[in-house]
Amino acid sequence: MAHDASTSISILDRLAALDTSTVSDALDFLHLKGATYGLRPLWPNCPKIVGRASTVKVGPKTDSSSTAHPFTRVIDAITTPDRILVISSGLEGISCWGDIISNAAKARGIRGTVIDGMCRDIDGSREVAYPVYGRDVTMISGRSRLVQLAAGSPVQMRGVTVREGDYVIADICGTVFVPAERVAEVVDLGERIERRESLMVEDVRAGKPVSEVMHDAKFQAIHAETLSVAASATASHSSKLNVKTASAEDQELVKLFAGLDAPAVSDALDKLGIPGQAFGIMPLANYKKVTVGPAFTVRYVPATDPPGSVGDFIDDVAAGDVVVIDNAGRTDCTVWGDIMTQYAGLRGIAGTVIDGVCRDVNLAINEEYPLFSAGRWMRTGKDRVQVGGVNEAIGVGKVHVKPRDIVVADANGVVIVPRDRVREVAEVARGIEESEARIREMTSDGATIAEARKALGYHTLQRRS
Fold first, then answer.
1. Other C-beta atoms lying within 10 Å of the C-beta of residue 195
2. Cβ atoms within 10 Å of 66's Cβ, excluding its own
3. pLDDT at residue 4, rounded to an integer
4. Kind and range of the H or E element at 112?
5. Which domains, ranges and CATH numbers included, belong to the chain?
């Protein structure tokens, strides 16, 4: 989304009226990354800052040549009054910011600096009221130890990708980054959240019992309104990319697995005698969340001469779908890379499962895009494989997968639930999960594990009836 100067000023003013906690909540509802942990104000009563990112990446100096001080060229090049320097890749214990450069930035009209690293001479920054946020302070100079590697390029800040021109808000609670193309949605949502929570504060101050004001129903009302707005914002963003929306039935089936994980669903499949565990298909990273969605199936075959398409199918995948790719278990060439990862994320695709290998994994890991495969390798599949079919029955990890079957995947692996058995599987999985939760409660209350397992029938939970 492009912004002219007047729009940018208006958005900045509205963003400045919020705090980082509210903006973090808005990002959560929109399923966007941006909130960070550990980038805090580095001097007492450091002012809040709100602006747009000018990104810089630093790194270790590897030679003895004479170089300009990092950031000097970036500071001299800034011509607008809305900029915050966002510096990544600082070294532990080594300063990449100090009082002289704070004075230079202040004179240039820069609003502040956020460092994924260390700062020294912090009193000098405080004396000129120049805000600095970062990991910590140190006395060790970065001279002859750090150099500027890039400016104006995307940088990683505590696991968040920040691009030139993205929005920044930092206060006593920490630092949050907002993608420039989504800032209007985030601010709109943040203002709604703030209004609802302000009403709750007013009720408490007016003498209403806190048990009534902070009742679950109150939070559910906030969540219901916010989710509605977030859904509209997400739909609006998706429409610009011509993204297909999930059907009502798909959404209903996915919700059945809320609170369940792959092991619970695997046990339910065993109990019902349904083969569904995808053998050898593992997560790219140790994901904390569970990915659930209908399968959009893709079958790859060896390339013809001339070779056919390798990835255009993604334009037909609905938001919330999981792309499930059958590449016959091939590990000699890939069928998924960083371009597909980025595009899938923009389109709201839930994740990707590959009976084969992927490459360009750094982007998927940094963006936390759920990717499950038989491994990773660097050789391209272009001119080696091509799409042989989409939305047809395929095999993945020795499991038969039909289009729109439900995929459940997490750090433990991938399971496929036949669409016509989804409700039955979810119900059994929930029963197993509740029994195991009760076993944990009993052992916490003093029961032996043998007693708890016997009482809840642990050894037969997944056994086929």
1. 11
2. 6
3. 43
4. strand 112-115
5. 33-178 (3.50.30.40), 262-424 (3.50.30.40)
Rounded CA gap, 84 and 170, in Å? 10
Measured between alpha carbons, how far is 209 from 204 in angstroms, rounded to an integer?
7
Q: What distance in Å separates the CA atoms of residue 388 and residue 310, rounded to the nearest whole number?
A: 9
Torsional sign, CA 127, 131, 136, 142? negative
Tokens 């037969």 sit on residue: 460
Model confidence at 207: pLDDT above 60: yes
The answer to whether 116 touches 159, Cβ cutoff 8 Å, is no
Q: Are 61 and 146 within 8 A, CB to CB?
A: yes
Tokens at 35, concatenated: 């909130």
Q: Distance (Å, rounded) from C-alpha 152 to C-alpha 346? A: 21
Q: Element (H or E) spanning 389, and its range? A: strand 385-390
Block residue for tokens 């001080």 = 69
Residues 401-424: pLDDT tens digits?
Answer: 999 999 999 999 999 999 999 999
Residue with structure tokens 């005698």?
Answer: 273
At 353, list the tokens: 């499962």
Report d(CA 317, CA 233) in Å as an integer: 19
Rounded-to-integer distance, Cα 409 and Cα 406, Å: 10
Local confidence band at 238 (pLDDT 50, 70, 90 cut-offs): low
Question: Which ranges in 1-68 belong to alpha helices (H)?
Answer: 5-16, 20-29
Reduced to 3 states, what is the DSSP secondary structure of residue 184? helix
Per-residue pLDDT at 6: 41
Can you tell me the distance from the alpha carbon of 290 to that of 410, in angstroms, rounded to the nearest whole number? 5
Any long-range contacts for 96-101 (C-beta under 8 Å, 24+ apart)? Answer: 96/58, 96/70, 96/142, 96/146, 97/71, 97/132, 97/134, 98/124, 98/141, 99/123, 99/124, 99/125, 99/127, 99/128, 100/124, 101/69, 101/71, 101/72, 101/75
